[in-house]
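Structure in, sequence out. Go:
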């Protein structure tokens, strides 16, 4: 199954702020860290105010690994799709739980970087620079069907 990924981070090579995965069937996972003490000025102005827009409960970094593992569940061949290489990097860093250790995952995880602009989008309510909305917009842009189904459905 394909999972559309987006991350928000604190400027170039900065700390991860939030991560979202939206499965091709519309189920979603959104993780956000507590507010960082020192932020890039652009990030503080354009990203931080909308990080918890989707009622994300701030999580410590250690929780990200287990939440991602649970979300990918028993998918034998997840395909992670992003529109930027850093998103893949941050995702992979979340899978690492310690020296030589990682979450229990499928034997194969594939990655795709699709260089597309998800915005502007016709997706109602979309808010750019929010990881969940950006992952939804990427799914909307790259999917054959543009219907949205959330965990609440």
């Amino acid at each position: 199954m394909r999972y559309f990924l987006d991350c928000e981070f604190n400027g170039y090579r900065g700390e991860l702020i939030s991560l979202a995965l939206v499965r091709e069937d519309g189920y979603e996972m959104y993780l956000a860290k507590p507010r960082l003490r020192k932020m890039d000025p652009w990030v503080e102005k354009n990203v931080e105010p909308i990080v918890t827009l989707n009622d994300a409960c701030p999580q410590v970094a250690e929780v990200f690994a287990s939440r991602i593992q649970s979300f990918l569940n028993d998918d034998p061949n997840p395909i992670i799709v992003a529109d930027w290489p850093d998103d893949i990097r941050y995702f992979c860093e979340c899978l690492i739980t310690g020296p030589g250790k990682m979450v229990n995952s499928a034997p194969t995880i594939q990655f795709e970087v699709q260089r597309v602009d998800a915005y502007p989008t016709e997706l109602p309510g979309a808010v750019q620079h929010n990881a969940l909305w950006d992952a939804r917009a990427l799914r909307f842009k790259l999917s054959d069907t543009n219907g949205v189904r959330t965990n609440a459905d």
